Target: Glutathione import ATP-binding protein GsiA
Amino acid sequence: MTIAITSQGAPPLLAVTGLVKTFSAGGRPPQRLHAVDGVDFTLARGQALGLVGESGCGKSTLAAILARLTDPDRGRILFDGVDLTAVPARRAAHAPWRRRIQMVFQDAGDSLDPRLTAIEAVARPLARLNGLRGAALTRAAAEALDRVHLPAALFGRLPHQLSGGQLARVGLARAIAPGPELLILDEPTSALDVSIQAVILRLIDDLRRELGLACLFVSHDLNVVRMMCGEVLVMYLGRVVEQGPADAVFDHPAHPYTAGLAAAIPRLDGLRHESAAPAARRRMTGEPMSPIDPDPDRCRFDPRCPLAFDLCRQRMPVLTPQAGTPAAPDAPPHLAACHLAGGTGG
Ligand SMILES: Nc1ncnc2c1ncn2[C@@H]1O[C@H](COP(=O)(O)OP(=O)(O)O)[C@@H](O)[C@H]1O
Ligand SMILES: [Mg+2]
Model:
């Protein structure tokens, strides 16, 4: 077995290989919906990795697999050298690594127990995962709530007595309290008003730096990912189509899908996105391919791609290093899965 080595020379905190998750789609013969279809990546300690792509591309399914809330059909998840898939999801709550990987959900209001006060919501998992009791437990829960700047006067409030932003803070406190090394955030601010989103995003960024957390940050919003993450994975219908340093991927998209996404969304600084392939900046047209038993020898993006040609219907492109993208010496490689993307030829 080979263990991928990150640019810093240390083994990655998280190394994912060949993850596949399908769901039954009924039919006779039985059909399968391919939600996550062969995903590989690594995440270094303390790094923020963004996961972007349109609704339905498999982001939440991938996040749930990594948080061990659901089992993959195939694939391996190595976390600090430990194979997480050795324990099925239904028993993961009691796994020794459970404290070290925490999840932040899209809607904190929905994910919090309506009968627990803010401090109880934070204390519950702390008691289970860290074995704290009594005054030590209360102190640790209060410390976590202080870290997310929830006023102490609100510690005894129930979820329905808190605002959206306050609920998001409680959700974050609950996730960081056990002392995780990896935080998985699935659209953590998309249920919030825009003005509150920016405040919570800054808080997440501060917590990540202060606590040295690695983050997998799921969002359909490219600007948010660009602001929050040094690296990015772009997913399309269950597959990673492009990955690399966020600046390289967004400023020099190599996959026509990424170029289309980047062109469709105005940048905060008002600049236009430059693409290596100007034709790819044309609007994406056509219907996405069905995720039900898709042709394994056809590029998933083919039906919507302005640049598609014969090969795209004969062979699935694989992730290939991109030449000519300016990058820092220790930056992760820029990869794209497109027959037309400018590979290094090596
Ligand atoms: N529990 C499930 N049962 C059946 N299909 C599912 C289930 N969860 C997700 N899917 C399907 O898997 C695909 C990926 O969904 P999801 O991971 O939620 O995408 P995203 O988070 O990117 O919007 C979609 O086609 C969705 O309909
Ligand atoms: Mg989702």
About this structure: The longest strand covers residues 32-43. The first helix runs from residue 59 to 66. The chain has nine helices and twelve strands.
